[in-house]
Every structure is written in structure tokens, then in C-alpha cells.
Amino acid sequence: MVAYSQKVMDHFVNPRNVGEIADADGVGTVGNPVCGDMMTFYIKVADGRLSDIKFKTFGCGAAIAVSSMVSEMAMGKTLEEGKHITNKMVADELEGLPPNKMHCSNLGADALRAAIEDYERKQEGLT
Length: 127
Ligand code: FES
Fold this sequence. Notes:
Layout: H1 6-13, E1 26-31, E2 38-46, E3 49-58, H2 61-74, H3 79-83, H4 87-93, H5 106-126
Antiparallel strand pairs: 1-2, 2-3
Helix pairs in contact: 1-2, 2-5
Bound molecules: FE2/S2 (inorganic) cluster.
Residues 32, 35, 37, 59-60, 62-63, 104, 107 line the site of FE2/S2 (inorganic) cluster.
């Protein structure tokens, strides 16, 4: 039996910000090469900040907890701050993940960063 922290269980059982933003400003999808699980982040940007974040995760419980935590950590942050959230910061914030589940934390920060980069690419196209 894998031992999960209380925080992981909380975010798995009651994930925050699940869903999709139809008119998202940026969308990022990443897949985990280890297990094939997938995660998509949708962001809205206002005044240079992440004003709304939603995600859809087709993955294990740890991946769902990671996405939920990333969305909470990044909400209201500037784009730069959002980009600097690392997988390790997310795992730490979740009070750790079992060693064989650390790979699951790789998706969260990467998917958020991909969504921010998608937004930035679109902005460049507009200028
Ligand atoms: Fe695939 Fe956790 S087993 S992300």
C-alpha cells in the first residue's frame, strides 16, 4: 500500500479547478512518457496575471492531486511566477509523494508552463 500524505489525498478526493475554459487564452497539454497519462491546463490572463486556471487530467490519483495543487499555487500569480513553479515545488507543497509516484509530479508544472507559452506565442502573433 502506497502511503500518500493527507494533502495528496485531499487534492485527489476533492480536486480544485477541474474543468475546461472554452475561451481560454492559453492551452497546454503534456503527456507522461513513463505511464502515458495526459494533462491539459487552460488559462485566462488579465493584467499579466493568471486570472483563471482549469485542468483536465487523464491520469492517476497523484497526477490529479498534482494538477489541483498547481492550479491553486498559480492562481493570481504573474506569468513569470507561474512559469517558475517547478515540479519539486509542487511535490513539496503536497508534503511529498511516494518515490514511485514522483514521476507523476512531472506533468503539473510542465502543463501549466506549456499553457503560458501558448498564450505568449499567441500574443506575439497579434503584435
Ligand atoms: Fe501516470 Fe501517475 S501513473 S501520472
